[in-house]
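pls ignore typos typing on phone
S-adenosylmethionine + seq
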Amino acid sequence: MTSGRSMDDGESDFDWSWSDEDPTWVPPDIDITKPSPARMYDYALGGKDNFESDFDWSWSDEDPTWVPPDIDITKPSPARMYDYALGGKDNFEVDRRAVEQVATVLPDFRRLAQINRTFLKNAVRIMSEAGVSQFIDVGTGIPTSPNVHEIARQVHPDAKIVYVDNDPIVMAHNRALRATVEGVITVQHDAREPDTIIGDPAVRRLVDFHQPIGLLFVAVLHFVRRDLAADVMTRFRQSIPSGSYVAISTACSDGMDPAVVSKVETIYQSAAAQIVFRTGAQIEQLFEGLEIIEPGLKDVTKWLVDEPTPEIHVTAGIGRKP
Ligand SMILES: C[S@@+](CC[C@H](N)C(=O)[O-])C[C@H]1O[C@@H](n2cnc3c(N)ncnc32)[C@H](O)[C@@H]1O
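k done
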């Protein structure tokens, strides 16, 4: 077989469907040990002509200088920083350095990531037990077990989940989920543009907007400008029916030394997304039109945590649309 396709190609040269009989067979001139930009693109488009190396980059530990072409490693990425804070390996030097810098003023940054995940798990469980079986997880991050679909499906085995993020590295990892799990999709959109998410045909096919929906904004709204966030949340709230829930956790400046707030915001100035702290009152505004359920708006360290630990300045809460 020659590479490329011409009028003289026989069908076997471009139709590999016969190889479904032997899914391990790979044409001899295809190198599947390294990602190929074409196959990565195919994968990104939801195609199936790609191999594990196109979305699983763990092999790149062997060649630490190689970086996928659409990943910018000159700037820290909040998704990769968070992955590092959670002990993951899908991050680069620039991300690790940024986390270490944040840790100089917020020594609890790593604990913050862990406790924030506890809030996410509690939120999905509470909503599921209240009858919600479809979720849109905005700013989902690099997959971390248990994922939203795993938690929701303990209550509703056929729960539908939409994962949303705007970071290409998150997309690459999450699309592996979509390929294998029925009723779970990943879409690349920006949280600041609610209509692109709500109006995405793939989202509309999976989610019934006449049935209660669980919207998750866990550790993402602090990447949305203060003056924009209220409108963003209003638009999301309008799109969901009564009986839906919205979970939010976001950085809170109450009780913090303003110099520390300013230092953290400065560190994120060079990142792919900039962090903004809000006062407790500003966070409450994000829940406008919703009934805040127990235990209310609290620092995540106190949100259904058995042994509350010192506050980490991330406020969490869940609102129900009446
Ligand atoms: C700190 S992580 C939180 C991940 C997950 N929600 C959790 O709490 O475990 C923030 C995530 O939000 C994503 N993000 C930041 N700004 C975003 C935006 N404007 N639109 C969509 N995703 C965004 C980042 O790429 C990252 O994956």
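The chain has two domains: 12-70, 109-320. The longest strand covers residues 245-251. more later
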